[in-house]
């Protein structure tokens, strides 16, 4: 516990001159037993607006692009020959 809370807890609480009691307000407010707007808000979290559908539709071409890129990299690695025009003498000599 913080020292300032200990000091505040030891002092007697002053009455509010307006008569407003914050503790009574906090006790009175809470989750209502029936929310009249609950049905109006429900559409935001169901169907095409559910969390999974929003995530899935955020990057629509990522799956196809990933598969196409992997296929191209595989094709390039196995079927295309490296295009190097070096002989076995090494890189020390000048190229003609």
UniProtKB/TrEMBL annotation:
Cellular component GO terms, alphabetical: mitochondrial inner membrane
Membrane topology: Single-pass membrane protein
Subcellular location(s) of the protein: Mitochondrion inner membrane
Transmembrane segments: none
Keywords: Electron transport, Membrane, Mitochondrion, Mitochondrion inner membrane, Respiratory chain, Transmembrane, Transmembrane helix, Transport
Main location: mitochondrion
InterPro entries, sorted: NDUFB3 (IPR012576)
GO BP: electron transport chain; mitochondrial respiratory chain complex I assembly
Pfam family, any one: NDUF_B12
Assigned protein family: Belongs to the complex I NDUFB3 subunit family.
Role, per record: Accessory subunit of the mitochondrial membrane respiratory chain NADH dehydrogenase (Complex I), that is believed not to be involved in catalysis. Complex I functions in the transfer of electrons from NADH to the respiratory chain. The immediate electron acceptor for the enzyme is believed to be ubiquinone.
Protein's name according to its UniProt entry: NADH-ubiquinone oxidoreductase B12 subunit family-domain-containing protein
Organism in which the protein naturally occurs: Cercophora scortea
């Amino acid at each position: 516990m913080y020292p300032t809370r200990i000091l505040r807890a030891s002092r007697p609480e002053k009455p509010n001159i307006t008569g407003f009691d914050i503790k009574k307000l906090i006790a009175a407010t809470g989750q209502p037993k029936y929310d009249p707007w609950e049905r109006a808000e429900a559409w935001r979290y169901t169907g095409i607006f559910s969390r999974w559908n929003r995530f899935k539709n955020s990057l629509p071409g990522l799956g196809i692009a990933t598969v196409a890129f992997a296929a191209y990299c595989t094709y390039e690695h196995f079927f295309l020959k490296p295009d190097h025009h070096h002989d076995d003498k090494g890189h020390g000599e000048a190229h003609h």
